[in-house]
Structure formats: C-alpha cells, structure tokens
Amino acid sequence: MFDVSQFRSHFPILNSSLSSGKKLVYVDTASTSQKPSCVIDSVCDFYRSYNANVNHGLYDFAVRATEAYELTRFRIGKYFNVSEKEIAFTYGTTDGMNTLAASYSRKILSAGDEVLVGAAEHHSSCLPWRRACADTGATVKIIPLRGKQYELDVDFYRSMFGKRTKLVVIQHISNVLGNINDIKLLTRIAHENGAKIVIDGAASMAHGPFDLSDIDCDFFVTSGHKAFGPSGSGFLFGKSHLLDEMPPFRVGGQMVNEVSFTDALYKLSPERFEGGTPSIASVIGFGESIKFLSEIDWVFARRYLTKLTKYCHDRLLEVDGIELYGSGNAGIFSFNIAPLHCHDVATILAKYGIAIRAGHHCVQPLMSLLGTNGTARISLCLYNTIEEIDFIVDILKTCKSYFAR
Ligand SMILES: Cc1ncc(COP(=O)(O)O)c(C=O)c1O
C-alpha cells in the first residue's frame, strides 16, 4: 500500500497555513514540485557546514563539496541506468535544451536538413531548435496531433522522415494535455530512419524511474525541481560518443584542460558542458531528491497515482460546462469552464487555498490548436489526496455562480 499521510509528512510546506489562514491545497506540481525535508536540509547543510567551490580546491570543504556534487551524478546515472559520464549538469530543461541546440546543431545541421518537433512542445523545447534551424538554414517540421485527446500522430510521424531528417525533438509527457508519449517507439522509428532523438523529460521526472539505456534515446533533458529537487538543477543526458563529438557551448573555467594565448584544449564530456561555477547547492539537493525518489516503492506509488488520476478525471466531468483538453493520463488536467476565463477560475480557487496554474503554460502553438488562449490546469502528485480532489471539485462547481451575482 502507498501511505499518502506518511508521504506527505516529508513535505513541511503542506502543513503550513497561507496568509489567508487557509490550508494549502497544492495541485501545481507540473510547474514545480514541493520539496521534502531531506532536500531542504541537504541544501542548508551545504551552506552551513562545507560551502566551497567544486573541482579545484584541495582543502577539506572543497573536497567534500566536490564529492557531494559528484555523488549526484552517480545517483542520476544509477537511477536512469546510464553511465555517470553521460550526465552533464544543467540549470534545468530549458538550459539543457539550449545547450544541446547551440552545440549539437553546429555538429549536425546544415542548409536543407530537417528537424522534427512535436506540436505540443513547450517553448523551451521548440524555440532553441527553431533558432538553431534559422541559424543553419535547416527547417523545422511539426509532428501533428490527432483525435479528440490530441495524441501524437505516430503514423504521420513515421511518414515524415526523409534523407535530410537529422533529429527528432519530442516530450515524454505533455505539461498541458497529460498525454504520455511512447518514447521507446518514437526512438526506434527515429533510429530506423537514421535520425537522432532528444527527449524533453521535464514533466516525467515525478513519475518514477525509467531506463534510458533501454529506451535508447540519444539525448534526454530534465529539471530537478519538477520532482522534489531544487530549482537551478537539471541534467543533459547524451550518449558518450555524441557528447564527446559536440563542440562545447558555454566556454570558460572548469571545462577546459589547457589554454594558451591562441589555443584551448577542452575536456571531454560531461565536464566540457559545465563551464563556470555550477549551481552547487542545487546539484547537491538534486542528488538528495534522486535518493528520495529511489526509496519510493514505485509499484504502489504508481498504482496510487493512477487511482488518483482516474478519480480526478471522473470528478472533473461532473462540473457543468467543463471542457477537458487531452487524456490527462499523467495526472495533468487542462480545462476551461465556459464562459469563464481560466484566470477567473484560478483566482476563485486561490481564495480557498487551492494552487493551480492558469494561462498558456508556455505552449502557445498548442493553445492555438486547442482554440483557446489559455487553460486552467490541475497537476497531481503523490502528495495529493482524494479529499483534496473532492474539495477542488466542490469549489469548481460554484465558480460560475460568482459571475451570476
Ligand atoms: C514539458 C516541459 N518542458 C520544459 C519545461 C521547462 O522546464 P524548466 O523551466 O525547468 O527549464 C517545462 C516546465 O514547465 C515543461 O513542463
């Protein structure tokens, strides 16, 4: 059994009161997750007990800081079943995608090449590649969605590859639709057609471990803060031989072996992508969040999340005038309640201590497909409960009456 009360007890913020005196109901994990005490403590402990820069120092704290920093790399490698050498720290998904686009595009793209990008991609995933294509003369082609739930059109995707298709950019989970892409299948299709694939894993981090070696994707980027880790942490996974071939993007200290007045000899991956002083405390906290994730019994946890997701889906349908966008399968529900604006819905919920997100969720091209400027969004996590969903639905049912007064 998954014990939700026990799980919630790790998150001090869930017991705190809001300035209104209301109890917090936090259903905005797709924006950022709340943090367990172990992560908060590890960040504080670093600053309190052994704050030092990593890599160069020979004194006690510097060695400890470097060891703690590298332990995170080791834990990530183990959690996702890849070599730690293939994990380069970033400041998050946006940073990882920009690093990759700026660097790898110089290696593989030239005029006439094509990059396939999903229609539901976050701005962080589509914009870096649009810019890389504009800079190199390559073209972005959009992989369409199909059906009532806006699923990725895999058949069409298969037909899109040509001789000049170099790369696919696709999300694992949509932060708007809650749809889960079969990234193993999408990877196989890309490889059969001689293309590489990069996965945006921001929204899948809080869904437990998956085996990146088995999925066989070439690159994977994600953010620590989406699954109990601190903001300012994330990683770019890339197959070693691909990372080592890529020109570094952020050049400077830490990432270079030798510099003369005319030349520079860069380190191999992952260090070559970690120029400058990194977000050390955040990386150490990220390692603690990975340990926390590793200690969850995911068989029971996933079962709980599935139950919560189905319950939420069914209860939302009881709300008069609601329109749900996407399957919501990942516990992410985007909706509108006609004729209300999504910001009005979020404002009413906020009065009751309920934290949701409303707007375009940084996916404006998808909003145009959905025929709306924005949606209200509930995103569930393992610390949410059936009672919280009941409470939210009760309030949603009253929303329209605010405007009838
Ligand atoms: C699917 C998806 N991709 C990318 C991002 C960007 O992540 P970050 O802001 O942590 O860089 C997000 C954040 O909401 C996301 O949900």
Structure, described:
There is one protein chain. The chain has 14 helices and 17 strands. It is α/β, with parallel strands linked by helices and 405 residues long. It has 2 domains: 135 residues, Alpha-Beta Complex (Aspartate Aminotransferase, domain 1), CATH 3.90.1150.10; 254 residues, Type I PLP-dependent aspartate aminotransferase-like (Major domain) (Aspartate Aminotransferase, domain 2). The longest helix has 20 residues. The termini are far apart. The mean pLDDT is 96. The protein binds pyridoxal-5'-phosphate. The site of pyridoxal-5'-phosphate (PLP) has 13 residues, from helix 4 and helix 5.
What layout of secondary structure does this protein have?
Layout: H1 4-8, E1 25-26, H2 37-49, H3 60-79, E2 87-90, H4 93-108, E3 114-118, H5 123-136, E4 139-143, E5 145-146, E6 151-152, H6 154-159, E7 165-171, H7 183-192, E8 196-200, H8 212-215, E9 219-223, E10 234-238, H9 240-245, E11 256-259, E12 264-266, H10 280-294, H11 298-316, E13 322-325, E14 332-337, H12 342-351, E15 354-355, E16 357-359, H13 364-370, E17 375-379, H14 386-404
Parallel strand pairs: 1-15, 3-4, 3-7, 7-8, 8-9
Antiparallel strand pairs: 2-10, 5-6, 9-10, 11-12, 13-14, 14-17, 16-17
Pyridoxal-5'-phosphate (PLP) binds next to helix 4 and helix 5.
